[in-house]
Write a structure and sequence with these properties.
Jelly Rolls; 3 domains; 8-stranded antiparallel β-barrel; elongated; disordered N terminus
C-alpha cells in the first residue's frame, strides 16, 4: 500500500496559480502571533503556532484533539491511549530548508492500511508564504508531497495522465489515522478512514484520497533521506532505507536505457560493416578437388594440386563433402604456401546419423563441413591432409571432394561480436528488472506478476 503519498488539501484561503498550485501571498504577510492555553481535559499547556491558519491542535499531554478556532478551545475528541510506541523522527517546531524554501514541522501523524495494518509516518510542514507540504517516511524512505487541485485524465482506469506524464495504477485501499500530534489545517480525528488510490511513475506518485465529503489529489516525489536530515538536523538518527521504495528514482532503468542506446549504435555500425564486407567479398573458387577413400580405414599424405589465392590478406574457406550414411568422415591437415612454406593447420569432421525412436524419425549431422582460415596472404598454395572414416557398412571405395574458396562472406565474427556486445545489456536488463520487480512487490497491480498466478 502506498498510502503514505496522499495528503489532504491546502487550506481554502491559500491563493493558487492556473495549475492549482499554492503561490505565496504578498510579501507583507507576517507570521501570526503564537497563542497558548491550558487543555481543559488534562490541564497541560498547549501552544498554537499558527492561529487563524490551524483548525485543530493536539494536546501533548492527553492527545485530545482541540478545536483551534473555538474561543473556549473545545475538545473534539479525547485520546487516552498510551502513545510511547510512536516517536517522531522530526521534532515539532523544527525548521529546515527544502527545495529552496524554509519549512516548519507543525504536525505529525501515523496512518496505516486498514486491511494489512501496515503503518507509515507523515509530517506536516508549513511556510506562511508557500503554504503546506508533507514529508512521509516509510521504511527509511522519504517523499515530499504537494496537494494539487487539477484532476488527471482517466483516473478511473489502470492508467492516468497528468501534464503529459503517464502513471500506472499501483494500489487501492483504505487508510486510517492511528496517531496524531501538532497542528493541522483540518479537524483531524483518530481512526477516521479514507479511500486511497495510487498511480506510479517513479520517482513520482499521483495519489487520490476520497471520503464522503471530498476528493483530494496529491503528487509525491522521492527525496533522499540525507537531504531531509541535512535540512532539519534531527537528534534521532534516521533508519536505513529498507528495500526499494515505490517512488525511488529508477537509476538502473535510466542506465539500462543509455546502455541500450549505445548498443543500438554499435549494432548498427557493425551490421552495416558486415553487410558491406559480405557484399564486396570475392567468394571465388580457387580449387575443386575430388579423390577416393576406402571406408573404415586411415589414409595419409594426400596432397592437392597447387592453386592460386588472389587478394592479399583475405580469408580462405576449406570445405569437405563426404558420402556419410550413419557413419563419419574426418580430415586433418594444413594449407601450405608453396613459396614460403608457411602453413595453416585445420581439422574437420563430417558425420550423419538417422533412425526411428518410438515411431518418430530423427536425424543429425551432415556430410558437408567447412572451416575458415582468416587473413591468408595471396600466393600459390596446396593442401596436405590425412583422412579417416568409420561405421560404413561396406568398404567399397567412395569419393570425397575438397573445395577451396577465397574471400568468402563470413558471419561468424559478426555473430560472436554481437554475442559479446549483448553481455552488458543483458546484465543491465537483469539488474533493472530485479529492481523494478522489488519496486512493485507491494502492489496488487504489478506488471511483473501474471494475472493467473
Amino acid at each position: 500500500m502506498a498510502g503514505n503519498e496522499e495528503q489532504p488539501n491546502m487550506q481554502p484561503e491559500m491563493p493558487a496559480d492556473q495549475k492549482g498550485e499554492a503561490v505565496p501571498p504578498p510579501a507583507k504577510a507576517t507570521k501570526p502571533r503564537v497563542k497558548s492555553f491550558h487543555c481543559i481535559n488534562c490541564g497541560a499547556a498547549v501552544t498554537i503556532r499558527y492561529p487563524g491558519v490551524s483548525l485543530s491542535v493536539i494536546c501533548s499531554g492527553c492527545h485530545s484533539v482541540i478545536d483551534a478556532t473555538d474561543e473556549n478551545y473545545r475538545i473534539l475528541t479525547k485520546y487516552f491511549k498510551a502513545t510511547g510506541q510512536y516517536q517522531p523522527l522530526l521534532e515539532l517546531g523544527s525548521r529546515g530548508k527544502l527545495r529552496g524554501h524554509l519549512w516548519e514541522v507543525i504536525g505529525y501523524m501515523v496512518r496505516s492500511d486498514v486491511s494489512s495494518g501496515y503503518p507509515w509516518e507523515e509530517y506536516l510542514l508549513f511556510n506562511p508564504y508557500y503554504g503546506y507540504r508533507w514529508l512521509t517516511q516509510d521504511k527509511g524512505h522519504w517523499n515530499i508531497v504537494t496537494t494539487i487541485k487539477r484532476k488527471p485524465k482517466r483516473y478511473l482506469t489502470s492508467e492516468t495522465e497528468l501534464d503529459g506524464r503517464k502513471f500506472k495504477l499501483y494500489n487501492t485501499g483504505r487508510a486510517q489515522v492511528d496517531y496524531v500530534i501538532g497542528e493541522f489545517y483540518w479537524r483531524v480525528m483518530l481512526n477516521t478512514q479514507v479511500t486511497m488510490t495510487d498511480y506510479l511513475d517513479a520517482p513520482q506518485m499521483l495519489s487520490m484520497e476520497k471520503d464522503d465529503k471530498e476528493v483530494i489529489w496529491s503528487l509525491s516525489e522521492y527525496i533522499e533521506p540525507e537531504e531531509v536530515a541535512k535540512a532539519f538536523k534531527p537528534q534521532t538518527k534516521f533508519p536505513r532505507p529498507d528495500g526499494v521504495a515505490a517512488t525511488e528514482p529508477p537509476k538502473l532503468k535510466i542506465r539500462h536505457n543509455k546502455i541500450m542506446m549505445l548498443f543500438m549504435i554499435f549494432w548498427g555500425i557493425i551490421t552495416c560493416g558486415q553487410i558491406y564486407y559480405s557484399g564486396t567479398a570475392l567468394n571465388e573458387t580457387a580449387l575443386d578437388y575430388t579423390n577416393n577413400f576406402v571406408p573404415n580405414t586411415k589414409q595419409a599424405d594426400i596432397t592437392t594440386p597447387v592453386f592460386t589465392l588472389k587478394k592479399d590478406k583475405a580469408n580462405v574457406a576449406i570445405s569437405f563433402n563426404a558420402p556419410v550414411d550413419n557413419s563419419w568422415f574426418w580430415a586433418g591437415g594444413e594449407l601450405v604456401n608453396d613459396d614460403t612454406g608457411v602453413s595453416y593447420p585445420f581439422e574437420q569432421d563430417a558425420e550423419y546419423y538417422y533412425g526411428v525412436d518410438d515411431g518418430e524419425a530423427w536425424s543429425e549431422g551432415s556430410g558437408f563441413t567447412k572451416t575458415i582460415i582468416p587473413a591468408v596472404p595471396a600466393g600459390k598454395y596446396y593442401v596436405n591432409m590425412d583422412i579417416e572414416s568409420g561405421s560404413f557398412k561396406t568398404t567399397n571405395p567412395r569419393a570425397f571432394s575438397v573445395t577451396i574458396k577465397r574471400n568468402v562472406p563470413n558471419w561468424d565474427n559478426y555473430v560472436w561480436s554481437m554475442i559479446f556486445l549483448s553481455i552488458l545489456p543483458i546484465i543491465s536488463w537483469c539488474m533493472m528488472r530485479q529492481t523494478e520487480v522489488a519496486r512493485w512487490a507491494n502492489s496488487d497491480y504489478s506488471p511483473y506478476v501474471s494475472s493467473g498466478s
